[in-house]
Specification:
Elements: H1 16-29, E1 34-39, E2 56-61, E3 74-79, H2 87-101, H3 104-112, H4 117-125, E4 127-132, H5 137-144, H6 176-179, H7 189-201, E5 205-210, E6 213-218, H8 230-246, E7 252-255, H9 256-259, H10 268-274, E8 280-287, H11 297-301, H12 306-318, H13 323-326
Helix pairs in contact: 1-2, 2-12
């Protein structure tokens, strides 16, 4: 049966090394608006947590020109590739970086949807992006070695369960093979480095890209309801519009805890909203083949044809250019 499962087609997808080669080329070609940094969190070694390092590569994109002061700009922190098996999210990150380097085609498509070209250009030049193309490099390397179902990092921790909000809580159907949250909040270098970026950058928008289904989630993941207040209602409105723009109206919209079918504890999106006060905190689930066998992980989480690939990557790159995301 295993021979029937879909495999990665590297004529369509980039390898991990190719991803960062392309990232470096884009940054080098656009030094006035792009910068690539590695963020390394201090390592806390104990007998129960062996040495492990995974620097976080972060691309700063400031379309109005790189500066040292972002206080008056809209700040967006966008994360891709948190789970190794979700290759398609990394491809969206690559396309997004290329589109920010040359935004003309993406802006033209937004104008075709009725958006003002002058407003879009103003918003773009008044914004700064921190983009993580691939959070989980070690998990991704395992996928490329043939472990196509791997979502965890190199220490078998799901970094999207390693954040402090409601960390370590176990539901009755808790699966340690899928959701191991680590030995303590922020025990993992990927999570600790992302926290450092977020604390310093103070984003207005957080978006964590995943695949496995088609959904647009807001807090909360660990409770089956959304926050109260006008900001939450505005967030729902943004997601409904994105559903129409990028998902053809198919996406589930609402809180992750209510819509995904299970509660998730220790997630990045809940922390960004609850602890750091990021007003627009999203999780975008950009693709899922719900008919795939549960062992057919590549097919379940990633498009397998060029046409599907192009549609998903194009739609979810354009989603970032939807002015409602920034407004």
């Amino acid at each position: 049966m295993a021979g029937e499962w879909a495999q990665v087609d590297y004529s369509i997808y980039h390898t991990k090394d190719q991803v960062f080669e392309e990232v470096e080329q884009l940054v080098a070609a656009n030094p006035k608006i792009m910068r690539l940094d590695e963020v390394v969190a201090p390592e806390e070694r104990t007998p129960s947590t062996p040495a492990y390092a995974s620097p976080l590569k972060v691309v700063t994109v400031e379309p109005g020109g790189l500066s040292n002061n972002h206080n008056k700009k809209l700040r967006l922190l966008l994360n891709y590739g948190e789970h190794g098996r979700e290759l398609i999210t990394v491809e969206v990150a690559l396309r997004l970086l290329a589109s920010l380097a040359d935004p003309g085609p993406a802006l033209a498509r937004s104008v075709q949807r009725g958006h003002s070209p002058h407003l879009l250009k103003h918003l773009l030049h008044s914004s700064v992006f921190k983009i993580v193309p691939m959070e989980n490099e070690v998990g991704r390397a395992a996928v490329e070695r043939g472990q196509l179902c791997e979502r965890k990092n190199g220490r078998s921790v799901d970094t999207n369960r390693n954040w402090e909000v409601h960390w370590g809580f176990k539901e009755k159907d808790y699966d340690p093979k899928e959701e191991f949250p680590g030995t303590r909040p922020f025990s993992e270098p990927e999570t600790a480095a992302m926290l450092r970026v977020a604390q310093h950058f103070k984003p207005h928008v957080w978006m964590n890209a995943h695949s496995g289904m088609e959904a647009l989630f807001m807090p909360y993941d660990h409770m089956a309801h959304i926050p109260e207040g006008t900001a939450a209602l505005a967030t729902q409105d943004v997601l409904q519009q994105l559903n129409n723009i990028s998902c053809g109206g198919r996406c589930a919209v609402g809180s992750g805890g209510k819509s995904v079918g299970y509660l998730a504890h220790g997630t990045a999106t809940d922390y960004m909203y609850e602890r750091l006060g990021v007003p627009l905190s999203f999780t975008w689930e950009i693709y899922g083949d719900t008919k795939a066998h549960f062992n057919d992980c590549f097919r379940m989480f990633n498009p397998v044809t060029q046409a599907q690939f192009d549609e998903v990557v194009g739609n979810w790159t354009d989603a970032v250019f939807a002015h409602r995301v920034w407004h």
